């Protein structure tokens, strides 16, 4: 039945922001709430899957039945994802920080006569692209998210190719949309087969519909 569409499958979900340290008491972060990722993890459990949720720092409780791995930085998230593989489906909803401070201070940075510190940034690993391109360990189905403020579908198509995933779930996170931190979402599914735009619904409804779709995309065993 519908409650067992993913029985015997392992679903891996990343969620939340990452925190990139500047020094022991400061970090770079973003406004990701983790809500959509946590809803997806819960929906995958409801579909009968074994679920690993690799989460950056958020204030949400762990969904029942999920194996939760808490991380802070992008590099920790990549490491936790690698350790959780193999998986049948991997869904990358985390808002991973694009950059981290090249050399985070071992001690708290102090104000001094020389003015503000200059923070050198370096790029973080792209977790989705890394896993999608790791042919020995690639899950059968790799799903990415794209948070865009303009040209949502156009940017998502480019991202699908660039990241090497099977599906991009694109949403409009412009301030007017109220998606970031909110409870509702309007998504566009972008795959090699084309674009499918869903009407606006709650994040839980998006999660259940997406998990049902993912189950149909998996080759039967
Ligand atoms: O390139 P952009 O950040 O817009 O891509 C978003 C997608 O890529 C999301 O699925 C996100 O979880 C994933 N991503 C990632 N690691 C990064 C950056 C993005 O897994 N360093």
Structure explained in plain terms:
- It catalyses: N-[(R)-4-phosphopantothenoyl]-L-cysteine + H(+) = (R)-4'-phosphopantetheine + CO2; (R)-4'-phosphopantothenate + L-cysteine + CTP = N-[(R)-4-phosphopantothenoyl]-L-cysteine + CMP + diphosphate + H(+).
- By secondary structure, this protein is an alpha/beta fold.
- It contains 5 helices and 14 strands.
- An 8-stranded mixed sheet has the order 5-4-1-6-9-10-12-13, sandwiched between helices. Strands 2-3 form a two-stranded antiparallel sheet. A two-stranded antiparallel sheet has the order 7-8.
- Helix 1 (35-46) packs across helix 5 (203-217).
- The longest helix has 15 residues, at 203-217.
- It is globular.
- The chain starts with 9 loop residues before the first strand and ends with a helix.
- The mean pLDDT is 94.
- The chain binds cytidine-5'-monophosphate (C5P).
């Amino acid at each position: 039945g519908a409650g067992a569409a993913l029985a015997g499958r392992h679903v891996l979900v990343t969620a939340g922001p990452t925190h990139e340290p500047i020094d022991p008491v400061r970090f770079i972060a973003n406004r990701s709430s983790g809500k959509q990722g946590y809803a997806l993890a819960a929906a995958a459990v409801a579909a009968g899957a074994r679920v690993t949720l690799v989460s950056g720092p958020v204030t949400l409780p762990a969904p029942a039945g999920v194996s939760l791995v808490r991380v802070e930085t992008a590099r920790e998230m990549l490491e936790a994802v690698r350790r959780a593989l193999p998986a049948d489906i991997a869904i990358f909803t985390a808002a991973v920080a694009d950059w981290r401070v090249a050399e985070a201070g071992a001690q708290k940075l102090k104000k001094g006569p020389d003015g503000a510190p200059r923070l050198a940034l370096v790029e973080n690993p792209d977790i989705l692209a890394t896993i999608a391109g790791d042919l020995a360990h690639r899950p059968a189905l790799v799903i990415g998210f794209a948070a865009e403020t303009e040209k949502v579908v156009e940017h998502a198509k480019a991202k699908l190719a660039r990241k090497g995933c099977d599906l991009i779930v694109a949403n409009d996170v412009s301030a007017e949309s109220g998606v970031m931190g909110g409870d509702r979402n309007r998504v566009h599914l972008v795959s090699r087969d084309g674009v499918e735009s869903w009407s606006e619904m709650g994040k839980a409804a998006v999660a259940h519909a997406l998990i049902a779709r993912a189950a149909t995309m998996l080759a039967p065993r």
